[in-house]
Automatic annotation (TrEMBL):
Residues 200-332 form the Glycosyl transferase family domain. Pfam families: Glyco_transf_4, Glycos_transf_1. It comes from the Bacteria. This is Glycosyl transferase group 1. One of its GO terms (molecular function) is glycosyltransferase activity. InterPro entries: Glyco_trans_1, Glyco_trans_4-like_N. It comes from uncultured Desulfovibrio sp. Residues 13-187 form the Glycosyltransferase subfamily 4-like N-terminal domain. Signal peptide: none annotated.
Amino acid sequence: MRVAIVHYWLVNMGGGEKVLEALCRLYPEAHIYTHVLDRANVSPGIARHPITTTFIDKLPFSKKNYPRYLPLMPFALEQLDLTGYDLVISSESGPAKGVVTRADTPHICYCHTPMRYLWDNWAEYLAASGLLTRCAMRLLLPGLRRWDVASAFRVDRFVANSHNVARRIRKHWRREASVVPPPVNIETFTAKKSPGGDHYVCFGRLTAYKRMDIAVQACTRLNRPLLVLGEGEEMDRLKAMAGPTVRFLGRLSDKDVASVLTASRALLFPGEEDFGIVPLEAAASGVPVLAYARGGALETVRPEETGGLFDEQTPEALAAAILKFEEDELRFNPAAIRAHAEKFSEQQFRSRFMHEVEQAFQAVAGV
């Protein structure tokens, strides 16, 4: 079967790219289409596939400034020729689902989230942009939103990564979506033998919406050791507010991340994510998670069993959650936490996603 996978852009390895890796293992002969490709920052499992980019990739500074070309991406997607494929899978977080396919070709969209630039977080993105970008986006937003909704009807079947995202799909696009959680590479992580650890940890891309500043401030105030893993534009700001108990380790290999997690007391997860694979990677290590009680964390963290939730996105609320956790830290069972993570294994993902593919083929065939 000839399969095309359309991914929004390939410039780093985040949660969306880990799902793409799983799709590549599921369809080892698939061709990948994307707007922008930075081969130095994608995994060998992705890079070994034939990868075609849109004309966005050839524009100046596209590998770093690709969001600035968002208004051109709908046009770029519609220029892709996918007529030679039996199945098209779009991986949607930026523009990916707007490709044009044959009437007899099932198009499944695995949606990490409807574009934040256009919907839930548009005001935050505008506030963080320069004057020229703000003026341009205010003019372009209505047209981009209309295209985004219209292109949703080119998809035969939506699959959301969480019930949280399925609600957004229903709200913004008026489409229903099945839910298949993204896969966690359970085998990469080893569950610790007993509760406790040397430090707290948080990791991921150091961007504003992940709110790593809350973890840095909370641990600084409580004088608790915190290891921050990852890189991003927030690095300098976070270092400026960090106390002596906070260390920044930068970007680590998967093996080193697993080692750091196993030695941790708990993962701090102060951002609101669409789903969030990081809490499940911590769970696969037998490590409790203290998470902000919004978004995907409500589907991956079980209070009093695999961690705890805090209701306000503030350093004070996280600090209170840390103190509460430390009162009864020894009752968290690493083996039980690991068992929770195993429900999100790649094997489970493959089985559930293949069921969705079968349903899409039946729908297109009119069965």
